[in-house]
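Researcher: We're teaching a course module on how sequence relates to structure. For the next exercise, students receive a sequence and then see the predicted structure as tokens, so they can try to spot secondary structure elements on their own. Here is the exercise chain.
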Amino acid sequence: MKEFSKKYLYNYYFLCVAAAFLINFLIECFSRHSILAAFQYLMESPIVFIYNVLLILVTLSIVFLVRRKVFVFTTISIIWLAGGITNGIVLNNRVTPFTANELKLISSTFDILEKYFTKFEMGLIIVGILIAIVGVIISFFKAPKSRNKVNYKKSVPLFGAIVLSFILLTQGALKANIISDYFGNVAFAYLDYGFPYCFTNTLLNTGIKRPINYTEATMNDLAQTLVQNNESSELDNSNLVASNDNTLVPQKQAPNIIMLQLESFFDPTYMKDLEFSADPIPNFRKLKEEFSSGFLRVPSVGAGTANTEFEIITGMNLEFFGAGEYPYKTILRKTTAESLNFNLKDLGYSTHAIHNNKGTFYTRQKVFKMLGFDTFTSIEYMNVEETTPLGWAKDKYLTKSILDALNSTETQDFIYTISVQGHGDYPSTPVENHSKITLSGLEDAERLTSFEYYVNEIHEMDQFIGELTHALSLMNEDIVLVMYGDHLPTLGIEDAELSNGDIFQTEYIVWNNFGLEKQDTDVEAYQLGAHVLNQLDIHHGTLVNYHQQYQESSDYLDNLKLLQYDMLYGEQYIYDGINPYEPTKLQMGVNEILISEVFNDEEGNLIIKGQNFTNYSRVKINDSAYETTYIDSNTLKVSDYVLEETDTFAIQQVTVTNHVLSTSAKFSLIQEEDPMYDKGFEEGYMAGYQAAIEALKQQTGEIIE
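Model: And here is the predicted structure for the students to work with:
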């Protein structure tokens, strides 16, 4: 036994190899929620499994550079295991796995914890984190140090050789397609390539790599090939707008433009084996036959709403970014990006975003400034009275928000609307009194139940589409409504199950109320905006022009990558070296929240009267926020508060985690004095007025009021 211990248990080479194997196996157990599934993964993908073992081994090899070997070994092991456990917890509550980018968005992560975890589960997570931290601290102070000094002449070259060998191994694995550096679906990638590789990739591989041919001369040549339209004209009162050749054309060519991004929406009748008791999407199907439509290829499956959103708003191809990257979480936290918003603002449009979910999700309240939005109406500015059985807001409430945005300005409006009703995860057990449409055709009863739940939710979304198009058709303004699904639902759908054969395809429709010619074609998500604007004879914007003119060219994608790199990471040669886009001053909500009256009722409660209150309104009195009861859109209540004459009041709109999105103008019982007001003059005037009245009374003998 002593010989065994000496040979193996005190041999760090052996310990590191054994630990790397065990850690990777445990990580896969956590991620797949099954020891059997992890073992099956090991048997079916042994090369990928060993690759991930070697990756963990590279990190553990740091122990050869330090004397506190036990401490470093323990710390690195805990970090890997913590990542695996976190991923397992996350995947138990959503489809998208745990990525390194989420470490940069801890505040946003806390915003959604309440949706996914109970307070007890959150408590267990916190306890687990504390135990891990305590373990690392104890290891630092109590764990033995190596008695021998580190032989850096031997250890450093050894460590360098290990790292270099692994880099070469990675390049070989990429060329052999054993692993991939592009994740079309980050959830599938984690299953195929393992947590260690995928997580490390999302940590190290972000942004767009500098193209080999990126130079100032190359970008100048590319700029010369684009039709420049630098002179922008604001829309005037005669409803004319500058066209591509700078001539003024009727407003019909510059209508209000509404983009409606439908959560997890697709035509379920493309599923070969499913049968339906009724058509789940009759309105969408009818509109598809009447208006321009086609397949829309999106960058993700089952999740990734923000990435479809990013491609459509910016016209940028996500394939050029890091594997599994969300630009909302990376580059758009640092810089603005050319977008449909900025392009249309040049032509006099006002720009609005609407989303019936939290305003802080994907930090949209910050990102939308970088994309050129003027206003953002999130769920905190809506009165949502009905949700799905999973707690998501129903989409029918978006109609009012869209109409409010259209009516909030005198100019043309660009409105980007993001729905949420179709969001998963979809229950595998029946929901009572939920299904108006029944399904058959799948042998897996639980999966069939999930599909049935999903189909009935998108059936309601289809009803919302019918209501919205009807409401818009009654407006005396030219309107284009572009509707599309952001990605397929998280129902394990495979290409072979679809009649169109592609899980990355949804559909789009270009509804309008002024007779646009029907033009059916299939497009990529990053081409959709330019495609729609082309139908409207609008050709303003670098990427809009590029997509409209060069989609058929052989170097289309290569030059698109050059443009994207230059705009976001390069020297911005395409803009003569200066980014022309400044972050906007984003206004939360289009309807102003105001207080008109404050008083105590008979029971000693404080009553606040005003306008545009919601369930997310909170009363702020002086410098403190108070627990607030929502009565209706004009009334709020603060219990057991005695009003004082010097109090000042404001209304905060807050998320469920108490993040303040906006604060209204202050209201006070004592109005501030006007600096132009002369109190002495008023007193003298009133005294003279009273004297005149008395004199008149004496002369006439009448009572004068």
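Model: If you want an answer key for the exercise: The chain has 21 helices and 22 strands. Confidence is low (pLDDT under 50) at residues 228-252, 672-677, 700-705.
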